[in-house]
Specification:
heterodimer, A: 266 residues, alpha/beta, Rossmann fold, 6-stranded mixed β-sheet, 4-stranded antiparallel β-sheet, 10 strands, B: 303 residues, mainly alpha, ABC transporter involved in vitamin B12 uptake, BtuC, two-stranded antiparallel ribbon, 11 helices, binds adenosine-5'-triphosphate, binds magnesium ion
Chain lengths: 266, 303
């Protein structure tokens, strides 16, 4: 499904801020696999996702999606196959447009943006049903501007927008980190539901180790641009947060302390 | 006397409203300050003047629109493909167009159209003659309004509007923002040039410097419209821009009536826009001081 072959990325080459963000990473993801990604700040998790989605050009290596080489494909073209939700709720929606207009744009992903009506009657009905599935009451506010929604509502909407046309790959970059715990939980369970229902291959970054083990089917741990742990199946089922922390210290050669490197336990 | 001044102001306002709608697209929908406007307005006037002299006043409007669109798309290419800052791209195209505009007019700084047949001549000699400019301009602005409205409600219109709001989202949803900026600036400057073309026919001349300050006038119209008529729905916003342009013209003609020399007009425009743009800050400051005073008073009594 997704195949990364020896991908490297260095920021600020030739400057004092030169930073190797991805160090010859190879990773492949199977159809329908739900990967959770953990690692300290600056480990390269976001960079990994950005190199796949095309927001960040890579220096070396190859990226294949569905055996198509997308290494040099522009971001907007990859977006037709990849759905994304970011940490910042402001980033995924157009605040000055209505909920249904936002959804309509998402729904026309990959289709021609011609001079046909932005939202047809049948579209509207279907979009309404989809929004109702979020169980946030947004279906009665389709004509409200997105700018009026709370962060959690926006994230849920962005999640719907990223998946309303089924993507080959869904990328979630700490998409619940800016939300308060109750809403974060709600958005996470929505994520689980949507991913399962449509069997979407997913990559989810999280700082919460419990979440990383509880959701998904496979977990990788990153450190200094490398993947230092990759678990799934039985091994993953038996894994606990404490064991994970131990593994981290062992494999990264650094001790986990409560500074910036912290991987949250809950 | 008063009535005819008023009529003149409204007539001009309606024509300038077409230009203001163009400015609305770049400044508001694309959220991009586009200075091409000053020279694409002149470009429209020059093209219109030449074709009017040649006896094609209607063709002149279409040609002016197309010429303006080309100017706008060049600005778009400079920003999107060459990554030159939007402001600077606009300035570069504006500068380049100065020479082109002179060329269009056959290296003359202005062209006189007195006694030429214009689109307004069609009502000449009918009972509607006194209102010919009003009537024709009104029909035109309604057409432009409807076309623009329906365009912004299409799928393409949606992504165009989203580009100004959140370009990252547009890219994340599979549309190239370079393309939407291109289309947006082309339409925007096309409208501006169309307004220039109409003004040239209405005033029977074109002049190399007639576009100076158009951006500011357009912006003033957009802001006045927003402040007075609101921004609730798309159609309301568009109508607000048109009414804003008319109000702006009425203010200007009122100031002129009061005896202000016409040469000071640009200064007045600049001040109006400055005030309008700083409105949010001024409002905030005022409410801050009001709260501060109310708060300190309350505190004294309680202690
Ligand atoms: N655009 C950029 N320019 C320069 N350096 C960058 C850029 N993006 C990321 N980096 C650097 O690359 C490294 C990896 O960053 P990345 O954002 O991938 O980390 P992360 O694992 O997502 O961290 P976090 O948990 O804080 O989000 C960091 O050292 C970061 O400073
Ligand atoms: Mg990150």
């Amino acid at each position: 499904m997704l195949n990364m072959e020896t991908v490297s990325k260095t920021f600020g080459i030739g400057t004092i801020n030169e930073k190797l963000a991805l160090d010859t990473i190879s990773l492949s993801l199977n159809e329908g696999e739900f990967l959770t990604i953990i690692g300290g700040n600056g480990a390269g998790k976001s960079t990994l996702l950005n190199c796949i989605s095309g927001t960040c050009p890579i220096d070396k290596g190859r990226v294949f999606l569905d055996s198509e080489d997308i290494t040099y494909m522009p971001e907007y073209k990859r977006s037709r196959k990849i759905g994304r939700v970011f940490q910042d709720p402001l980033r995924g929606t157009a605040f000055d447009m209505t909920i249904e207009e936002n959804l309509a744009i998402a729904y026309s992903k990959g289709k021609k943006k011609g001079l046909t009506r932005g939202i047809s009657k049948t579209d509207r009905k279907w979009l309404r049903e989809q929004v109702a599935l979020l169980e946030l009451g947004l279906e009665d506010r389709l004509k409200s501007k997105v700018g009026l929604l709370s962060g959690g509502q926006r994230q849920a909407l962005t999640l719907l927008m990223a998946t309303i046309v089924k993507p080959k790959l869904l990328q979630l970059d700490e998409h619940t980190a800016a939300l308060d715990p109750a809403i974060a939980k709600k958005v996470l369970s929505l994520t689980k539901k949507i991913v399962k229902e449509h069997n979407i291959s997913t990559m989810m970054i999280t700082h919460n180790m419990n979440v990383a083990l509880e959701y998904g089917t496979r977990t990788i741990m990153m450190h200094e641009g490398r993947i230092i742990l990759d678990i799934k199946g039985e091994e993953r089922k038996k894994m606990t947060v404490d064991a994970l922390i131990e593994q981290f210290s062992k494999r990264s050669g650094t001790r986990l302390s409560n500074d910036r490197m912290l991987l949250k336990k809950n | 006397m008063f009535f005819s001044t008023m009529q003149g102001a409204v007539e001009l306002g309606i024509i300038y409203a077409i230009m203001a709608l163009g400015v609305f697209i770049s400044f508001r929908t694309l959220n991009m300050p586009d200075l091409t406007v000053d020279s694409s307005f002149t470009l429209g006037a020059c093209v219109s003047a030449i074709l009017t002299i040649g006896g094609h006043p209607y063709l002149a409007l279409i040609a002016a629109f197309l010429a303006g669109s080309i100017a706008g798309s060049i600005t778009a290419l400079l920003t999107t493909k060459l990554k030159i800052q939007p402001l600077l791209s606009g300035i570069l195209v504006m500068l380049g167009l100065y020479s082109i505009n002179l060329r269009v007019m056959g290296n003359r700084p202005n062209i006189n159209l007195l006694n030429r047949k214009t689109i307004y001549s069609i009502l000449q000699g009918t009972i509607l003659e006194d209102y010919k400019i009003f009537i024709l301009s009104f029909i035109l602005i309604i057409c432009v309004l409807l076309i623009l409205y329906f365009f912004l409600e299409t799928k393409l219109g949606f992504v165009l509007r989203a580009t100004g709001d959140n370009p990252d989202m547009v890219k994340a949803l599979g549309t190239n923002t370079d393309f939407t900026v291109f289309i947006g600036l082309a339409i925007s400057n096309g409208l501006v040039a169309l307004a220039g073309a109409l003004i040239a026919q209405e005033q029977f001349f074109s002049d190399i410097s007639m576009g100076v300050g158009m951006v500011v006038i357009g912006l003033a119209s957009v802001i006045i419209g927003e402040v007075i008529f609101g921004t609730n729905s798309l159609i309301r916003r568009l109508i607000a821009v048109i009414l804003g342009a008319i109000v702006y013209r009425i203010i200007i003609s009122f100031v002129l009536e009061l005896g202000m020399p016409p040469t000071d007009l640009k200064l007045i425009s600049a001040i109006i826009v400055m005030l309008a743009l700083s409105m949010p800050v001024i409002k905030n400051k005022l409410s801050f001081y009001r709260k501060k005073r109310a708060n300190s008073k309350g505190g004294k009594y309680r202690c």
